[in-house]
## 1
Amino acid sequence: MELRKRFASHIESNWVQNNHSLKDIPCVYAILGYDLFSKAKDIFYIGSTVRLHSRYKSHKVPAKVQSLNKVNILYYLPMDSGFYDYEIKLIRTLKPEFNRQHKNG
């Protein structure tokens, strides 16, 4: 949990925040949840895609984060290659709440 919090701060500082003009680009992305009262933040999902805009439009995780009474924000890291391997590494290391991959090994 502590590692996820530290990496969430890294994401905020170094990745691109969704400004609602997403393009269909290859990237690794993270969905962070923020508690407005406690100011706590956490990484709820890590993913990768070659078409970010299309993927985000159909994503179910933002609604799940909101159902926990948290504000969700998408951050992404554009990558031309290696994004799938980086996604898997992050999931295994950080174990976000809504990623299934880390729960299956």
Note: The chain has a mean pLDDT of 91.
## 2
Amino acid sequence: MPVWPLTVTAPQFGWTESPGDSLVRTQTDAGPAKVRRRFTSTPSTFSVQFVLTKAEATRLVQFYENAADDAIAGTNGGALTITGLPHPRDDSSATFRFLAPPVITQTAYDVFRASLRLELLP
């Protein structure tokens, strides 16, 4: 399992968390819909943003793209889970997976903003 490669672990531009929805709603002929829980545990989604140097931004892209057995280990295009990145709300250990490729934006010379969409696995 790939380990978060950067020393920066706390989002500097904030983050959002959306708890997973495991409810199934079934319409009835009369009255309110029936609601039941489909799963006991569902993944939450996170949007986080980090401030990175050019070298860190390059390393993040390599981490996303490379396979775990490459010289610079990675998530194989987001297919593998990540450890070493703490939960943003309570700093507990967590396991994440990429939901989308990282978006890297240059904000100044040698300063980049990385926006990540991650899934917190139960």
Note: The helical segments are 54-65.
## 3
Amino acid sequence: MPKQVLKLGTHRNNRRIWLDKEDLLVGAGFKAGELYYDNYNFETQTIKLRLHDEGNRKVSKKTRSGRLAPVIDLNSTKVGWALGNIDAIEVHYKKGLITISAVGKNKFRNL
């Protein structure tokens, strides 16, 4: 299962997750325009994104080298609420599912 470790950002006083690695997103089925549900879990410090035809969110797009590329931008108080006060996240990509979990401060700094 492909994964990546990313720094957790901040935008407009909210925690922000910006996923734009095209090969990982498309490999998991998250193409531009696809619908998905998001689930924020404070107890497990995870966020799960699950593809679904009736999802409440849509994979965004941006132009890269003249073609459309998928982008997932999670920027809300729910991100900070679910993940807590951390510096980094670990993102796991699986067909139809992206799992984002909190990473301790030391793990990110040792990469």
Note: Residues 77-83 form the longest helix (7 residues).
